[in-house]
Design brief:
140 residues, mainly alpha, 5 helices, 61% helix
């Protein structure tokens, strides 16, 4: 039967679905906020625009890549709403694509804003708010 292999990974839980919906809604709002803040500097391709400005305010003060944070949150929220199963694979593929895009963007931003981006990287976590501080506390 098609899809039977995924049934062992499915989780049927109302609280998990509620968590997924909340995450999906919050992540969508966060993504839209970040996209609005970028304005005309946004591009699906990894490029620097003329007179490009490094955004470090609003959602960019929370994570360095808030659009990707939001997209991953939307994928995870959708997976939880769908009971995981095959959606866990979709989330994994999405996370891999985001990882590649982040790597390319950080290379570009390091070239375009060498000193400023290094300071920003030190101050603001890549994707998960609070994770930067936790990892810094462990290094001490």
């Amino acid at each position: 039967m098609p899809g039977a292999d995924w049934r062992s990974l499915r989780v049927h839980s109302p609280w998990l679905r509620a968590l997924g919906l909340a995450l999906l809604l919050a992540s969508t709002a966060f993504t839209l906020w970040a996209r609005a803040v970028l304005g005309t500097m946004w591009s699906s391709a990894v490029v620097a625009r003329d007179a490009h400005v490094l955004r470090t305010d609003g959602p960019y003060a929370i994570t360095r890549h808030p659009i990707y944070t939001g997209m991953l949150g939307m994928l995870l929220g959708g997976a939880l709403l769908g009971g995981l199963g095959r959606w866990a694979a979709v989330f994994t593929v999405g996370a891999l694509i985001v990882a590649v895009k982040i790597h390319l963007e950080e290379q570009l931003l390091t070239e375009v804003f060498p000193g400023e981006y290094a300071q920003y990287r030190h101050r603001v976590p890549r994707l998960v708010p609070g994770l930067h501080r936790l990892s810094g506390a462990r290094r001490r």
